[in-house]
Design a protein that fits this description.
The chain is mainly α. The chain is built from 8 helices and no strands. Helix 6 runs antiparallel to helix 7 and helix 7 runs antiparallel to helix 8. The longest helix has 19 residues. The termini are far apart.
């Protein structure tokens, strides 16, 4: 296998590393969609809103996104609360109070919800709370052991933050 003597350690070490990487992939769900349904199975019919709502928000259809979420209230679902918070934050003008409420609810349900941590950090920047956003970035670093898109996005927003 390798051209030097390893006293039989290469195969066991390689096996352990492969097992760790496979376990990490299954825990994180592998590569995730940017819709911030990043932590659940969006193919389940009872969660059709996981794909529909982010698309509506991206198209600027915030009212329709909120209506779709209200049709299928999921008060105990972290992804549902995260999308509610996201929609309220994307309204014109943003509804900071409702947005924050839903991000906090998502984080009560799932404290390491990467999307809620990122989006709540971005909300804090909108409210000129740099320290709060940095705290969310710290929590994301713990939730994203090998780094993740959510952490990179929040860090980019923090790095370009200018108080208003």
């Amino acid at each position: 296998m390798i051209g030097f003597k390893t006293k039989g350690l290469v195969e066991p070490i390689a096996s352990v590393l492969i097992a760790i990487l496979l376990a990490y992939g299954s825990l994180t769900g592998g590569v995730q969609a940017a819709s911030d349904s990043r932590n659940t199975d969006s193919s389940a019919p009872e969660k059709s809103w996981l794909k529909q709502v982010p698309a509506l928000i991206a198209q600027g259809e915030i009212k329709m996104a909120l209506e779709k979420l209200a049709e299928d209230s999921q008060a105990t679902d972290a992804d549902w609360h995260n999308l509610m918070g996201f929609a309220y934050r994307k309204q014109t003008p943003p509804d900071f109070g409702r947005s924050e409420f839903h991000y906090l609810e998502a984080l009560k349900i799932k404290p390491d919800h990467r999307g809620a941590l990122e989006y709540y950090g971005e909300l804090m920047l909108m409210k000129n709370d740099l320290a709060g956003a940095q705290e969310m970035a710290k929590r994301l670093k713990k939730a994203c052991f090998f780094g993740c898109e959510e952490l990179r996005d929040l860090q980019k927003a923090i790095d370009s933050f200018k108080p208003r």
